[in-house]
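To whoever picks this up:

The parser on our side crashed when reading a file containing two proteins. I've narrowed it down to the boundary between the first structure block and the second sequence. Both blocks are reproduced below exactly, byte for byte. First block:
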Amino acid sequence: MAGKKILVVEDEADVMELVRYNLEKNGYLVETAADGREATEKVRSKSPDLILLDLMLPEIDGLEVCRSVKKETKTADIPVIMLTAKGTEADIVAGLEMGADDYITKPFSPRVLMARVKAVLRRKEMPADTDKSIVRIHEIEIDPGRHIVKINGEMINLTITEFKLLKFLASRPGWVFTRYQIVDAVHGNDYPVTDRSVDVQVVGLRKKMGTAGQYIETVRGVGYRFQEIVV
């Protein structure tokens, strides 16, 4: 992964230098921005391979920067890791719904930071899922080829991670999966996340699915399963 260009968007100078030092020590090329407006400009001009993005920024906040990155065709595929002091479920879900790929809450260890960076960059280079079969279950239709999900004929907008999570569970109704099995299926092996990260993704997915979100069942002490069709 050495030589990859990473844009660090952070208004706290000490945090910025800590992140820069550890990235450069591991062979990454680092660009920096201290506010949301500068970040938006550098995303377009520098074409980074990854963005480390603080949520609490002057000028334009991190969520708006993330939204801007993900809505433009030329930048939508750039992975975003939220780097933030905010740790509430609502803040994390909001960022993930904007299309962020992962999050790290402050304070963080440099080792965790580097593991997350490497994992997200590795995931970006993984070959795409080749199974393009349409999944139809309950009132849900999942079309991997066109990356479309419809519920009762109405299209819903999902992030890449949410789409993969839904497809994985809905393709195997009745099967119970642990959180780490879900992580491996959606993100690839050795992806460094906590149980809480999977739970947050499920919360966001259920919210977007409305009443159909009830089909993603929590199996206490184990993980999740997608409800089978009872004949």
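<<boundary where parser fails>>
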Amino acid sequence: MLGKDPYHELKLRADEVAGRFMDMAQAYVDSSEDKLRACLMVSVIGNIMDFGTPGGIDTPEEFEAVFQKLIDQGLGLDNSDRIEAVLDKPGTILYLFDNCGESQLDKILIRYLRSRGKRVVGVVRGEPILNDVTREDAVRSGLDKELDLMLDTGTFYVGLDWRCVPDDVMREIKGCDIIIAKGMGNYEALSDEDLPVPIAHVLRTKCGPVADSIGVPQNVNVVFVREP
């Protein structure tokens, strides 16, 4: 186990760069007739901040050049109506985070979900891995303050290791109305699992196998809901 997070400085830069776009992203949402869809659009384009991955960007600073382009591209698959269907009653949404930087833009979606009366439980990585959000990152960036409850996966693992899901996380999974799972790592961890609640995968299809599995082209923005 590494004694220091080797991605720490990259995470700081990613959060700082994404933070510059919060006002612009909120203005885009405020001007949109479909607020949920606009919030999801903002959240999904943050998934481009997957550094060194084919289909992602290589440095946080490249995000500025692609922000508006990705917004204009829209959603290549839009199941946002299935998320909307659970928002008119009290209940819990479990939110599985992915990368730093991206998580800054997730705040806008989380605020909207909570404004609709939902309890939002966020799940971050249990230990540093790649540029994924950990507890330390969430506290540093103020992400924890946007949530009703923050839990972690308990492991050094991309996504959730279903052989050892912490009891508190499993309890929230079983009791929630829907899971919002950000990014390809969470998609790969969840795609073969038969869970008792719908799973909304919010991601950009940065690789062929994931795109093929969902049934869309590569390099498109996706809100894909799998029913139980």
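After patching the parser it read the second block fine. The longest helix spans residues 102-115. The beta strands are 75-78, 91-96, 118-124, 149-152, 178-182, 199-204, 221-226.
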